[in-house]
Amino acid sequence: MKRLFICCDKDNRARVEHRAKTAFGHTVSIVDDMNKADLAYIVGNITPDMESNMKMLKENGIRTVKVNENFINENLYEKILDGKIRVKEMNLGKER
């Protein structure tokens, strides 16, 4: 199980953590100590506090991913919107 550190605005922390638990379920464990994390998500607009956390994450060699509040990778999302990446729909044989 991956240990995820969430770097976000302090005022939104409870909502973002709840959203992460809903999105990822039991596939990740959310940790409060960045030194125990395998991966860090940078969520929303970057504040000065978040910048210092991001610097420490980089120094500790923890991989970071910038995502929006829906946990969608912003770089990937922008490339899709610009047409640089094409998304292929797959039929997995499931009926609705």
Written account of the structure:
The protein is of the alpha/beta class. It is 33% helix and 21% strand. The protein contains three helices and four strands, in the order E-H-E-E-H-E-H. Helix 2 links the parallel strand 3 and strand 4. It is globular and about 40 Å long.
What's the helix count?
A: 3
Average pLDDT figure: 86
Indicate the percent of residues in helices: 25-40%
- Beta strands, count: 4
- Spatial strand arrangement across the major sheet: 2-1-3-4
Strand content: 15-25%
What order do the SSEs take from the amino end to the carboxyl end, as H and E? EHEEHEH
Q: Describe the biggest sheet? A: 4 strands, parallel
* Terminal Cα span: 30 Å
CA gyration radius, whole angstroms: 15 Å
Short descriptors:
96 residues, alpha/beta, 4 strands
Give a nutshell description of this structure.
This protein has 96 residues and is α/β, with parallel strands linked by helices. It is 33% helix and 21% strand. It is built from 3 helices and 4 strands, in the order βαββαβα.
